[in-house]
Amino acid sequence: MTDIRDGTRVRKKDRYNHESWAFRQLQKFIEYKAVEKGIRVEYVDPENTSKTCSRCGHISRNNREGLDFVCEECGYELHADLNGARNIEHKVRDFRHDLESQGSCQPPDVDGVEATSATASRGAEPQASS
Ligand SMILES: [Zn+2]
């Protein structure tokens, strides 16, 4: 994410709008690519993901020091971004669990199966001999 932001130069007063535009574009692109592959896209509340220990769940600003995450509760150490990513993963799993328990989680549609068999049977037509 840092590279994307640093790669574009805009006037300071336009920066906020420009950034949110770029992120919306990236978001749309990811959604488009995911739908193409039959993958669901979930949006997760990022609150506290960088301050929460992904092992014990302890939340504290003191857990994070720059790029290092060290839990003051259980002593768990890892890269801060990796810790944040794991917390997001946990949130998505909770969200999916909720959907599944409500019975509304549909498996992705398997398109193309019928189309493939139709093409195969057409190829089996008898050939006219000369
Ligand atoms: Zn911990």
Automatic annotation (TrEMBL):
Residues 23-88 form the Cas12f1-like TNB domain. InterPro entries: Cas12f1-like_TNB, RNA-guided_DNA_endo/Transpos. PANTHER family: RNA-GUIDED DNA ENDONUCLEASE RV2885C-RELATED, TRANSPOSASE. Residues 99-130 are annotated as: Disordered. Keywords: DNA-binding. It comes from the Archaea. The keyword Heme does not apply. This is Cas12f1-like TNB domain-containing protein. Transmembrane segments: none annotated. GO terms for molecular function: DNA binding. The keyword DNA-binding applies.
